[in-house]
Structures are given as structure tokens and as C-alpha cells.
Amino acid sequence: MKENTGKSKYVILGMLARMPQTGYTIKKWIENEYSHFWQESFGQIYPTLRKLVAEGLAVPSNQAPLENGRGQIQYSITDAGRRELSNWLREAPEVEKIRYEILLKISFGENTEPQVLLGHLEDFIKRNETLVQEMNRYIELSGQLKEKEIDCSFSQLTALCGVYIYSAMRDWAVEAKRIIAEKGDDQS
Fold first, then answer.
1. What does R_g of the chain's alpha carbons equal in angstroms?
2. Per-residue b/e over 145-171, b at no fewer than 16 CB within 10 Å?
3. Is 70 helix (H, G, I), strand (E, B) or coil?
4. 149: left (phi > 0), else alpha (psi -120 to 50), else beta?
5. Own/partner pairs for 70-76, CB < 8 Å, 24+ apart?
6. Signal peptide location in the record (predicted)?
7. How far is CA 137 from each of CA 35, 142, 156, 160, rounded to the nearest angstrom?
8. Which pTM was predicted?
9. How many other CB atoms are there within 10 angstroms of residue 7's CB atom?
10. Smallest Cα–Cα separation from 20: which of 79, 84, 73?
């Protein structure tokens, strides 16, 4: 399980501020919208929902029927939850920390054959191209949600950030491949 940074509370409050949701729909929305910069597991979501209810920041509402006949509890944010979310939004964000294993491997690249690194970079390029496409699809989908009176303008901005990040990482990998290939040619 990923380390709980204490931010799960605010992620879920933000999701509930949009509309009442189940734990499942929160997880799916996070996977689609935030996967380029944030993850939450079911093991974080459900205990956090229970804690929000205990703190009076969310309330369980009707059970949304599922195809299998069972119901899932839908949660809504309370006024106290909106205040808590608003207060957190006013705080300065923590300094971001990124971790890319590929950067470690490239950094230690003198310890392997250039072809190994070129293969890693090619995979990284493909992965980032796919992620750019996914972010662009989300931007398009959120435009469709606006037609249903669900405003995702600010979420579109986070997806746009994903487009820029993944495009930059792809472009870096293309350049890194060129440099490594040239270096290999020089040593031949």
C-alpha cells in the first residue's frame, strides 16, 4: 500500500465537492483524471471516507444500486467539509518530489551497454506518448461533462499539465536516445 500522506482526506473532499459519489466512483475518477500526478488505493479511500463521516465532513446518503443488486453507499460533502477543503486550498502546497527510475538508470548508464539504455528510452517514449493521448482524451471527456452541467474546467488544467509533462519527458527521451547513440558511434 502506498504511504498515506494525509492528503487523501482533501482529495476525497474535493471529489465530493463536485458531486455525491461512491468509493468506487472516486477511485475511478482519480485513475482517469489524476493518474499523472496522484494515486489513491481502495485501501486509502474507504477508511478515509469513514473518517470523514466520523469527523462530520461527509455524510453517507442513498445507496446507489449496482448491476449485481447490491447497493453502494454514496457520500456527500457537508458544509463543514467544504470549509475544511477551502481552508486546505488556501495553504501553500508542499514542495513536489518526483521519482523517475529511468533517470537513475540513465545516470548509471556507463555500467551497461548503450542498447539496454536505448531500449529503456524507447519504452519510455511509447509510454509517454500513450499518456499524452490519455490526457487529451480526458480533456475531451471533461468538455462533454460540461454539457451535463458538471464543470471540470480546473480538472482540465491538471490534465493539460499532464500533456505538457509527458510531452516534455517524451521529448527528453528522444534527445537522450540521440545522444547515447552518438556516444556509442564515437566509441566504435
1. 21
2. eeeeeeebeebbebbeebbebbeebbe
3. coil
4. left
5. 72/22, 72/23, 72/24, 73/22, 73/23, 74/20, 74/21, 74/22, 75/16, 75/20, 75/21, 75/22, 75/23, 75/49, 76/16, 76/20
6. none
7. 13, 9, 10, 11
8. 0.71
9. 15
10. 73
Residues in the chain: 188
Per-residue pLDDT 10s for the chain (188 aa) are: 344 458 889 999 998 998 899 999 999 888 877 777 788 888 899 999 999 999 999 999 866 555 545 568 999 999 999 999 999 999 999 888 888 899 999 999 999 999 999 999 999 999 999 999 989 988 888 778 777 777 778 888 988 999 999 999 999 999 999 999 998 766 65
The C-alpha cell at 136 is 487529451
